[in-house]
Specification:
101 residues; alpha+beta; seven-stranded antiparallel sheet
């Protein structure tokens, strides 16, 4: 089973939007470069990227700051990335037209 989904912040019913693999690559690509690792946990409402390409699914929680993204991947919190590119990719998601490839 393969899937790529995005859950938007402040989604009351925890619903997700299925996105194309290309869109997921754009979202994950915007998380780079990583500038540092944070000892603090990611707190608050955030985007959740979820995908499965092999055996185990992966979830990446992403918070958007003014100058950087803060994201949790495999229980490690990273700071870096490109918030503008991430938000551009999120804003371009059309739940009607996005499909799993």
């Amino acid at each position: 089973m393969h899937f790529t989904t995005v859950q938007m912040p402040e989604t009351e019913d925890d619903s997700t939007v299925t996105v194309s693999q290309e869109k997921m690559q754009q979202l994950i690509g915007s998380l780079h470069p990583i500038s540092r690792v944070s000892p603090s946990p990611l707190i608050g409402d955030c985007y959740t990227l979820a995908y499965q390409a092999g055996m185990d699914p992966t979830w990446v929680r992403v918070g958007v700051g003014d100058n950087a993204l803060v994201f949790e991947w495999d229980d490690i919190v990273y700071i870096g990335g490109n918030p503008a590119a991430f938000l551009d990719a999120v804003e371009a998601i059309d739940p009607v037209q996005e499909t799993d490839e």
